Amino acid sequence: PDNLLAWRADARTVFNQLMPPGRLTQVDIFFPTPWWDEIKRAKRMLITPQFVGDLAASLAPDGVVHFATDVPSYFEHAAQVFDGWGHSKSALSGEAKSRRERVCSRDDVPVFRSKWTPPRS
Q1: What DSSP state is assigned to residue 31?
Q2: What confidence tier does 77 reach under pLDDT thresholds 50, 70, 90?
Q3: Which of 37, 40, 91, 94 has the fewest C-beta atoms lying within 10 Å of its C-beta?
Q4: Residue 89 and residue 75: Cα distance in Å, rounded?
Q5: Residue 108's Cα: distance from chain center in Å?
Q6: What is residue 90's DSSP assignment?
Q7: For residues 32 and 74, is the Cβ–Cβ distance under 8 A?
Q8: Distance between alpha carbon 33 and the CA centroid of its chain, in Å?
Q9: First CA to last CA across the chain, in angstroms?
Q10: What predicted TM-score, i.e. pTM, was given to this entire model?
């Protein structure tokens, strides 16, 4: 499709340095690694205030961020970082499931989903 661009790069770099402002209508963040090791977490955590700010700048006025994880504490962390954004529950609406989501479904592991919209000034 002509509305899809795949990047083989760190999302933090893409959103901070390469993505034009107001360009995206939807960003999907599905099952990011929570990085349990404290040393790796500080260096590699995706959902941070800096990244969420870069996401906000990259979204079009009607843009949304869909987020899913099977780690309750990571969902709570993300909810804190996205504080101040519009929030609603997000449900999988017939799209193909990722490998991780199929495993969660098979093993009866709950998946925590949310849809956030950035605050508008």
Answers
A1: S
A2: very high
A3: 94
A4: 12
A5: 22
A6: -
A7: yes
A8: 11
A9: 33
A10: 0.85
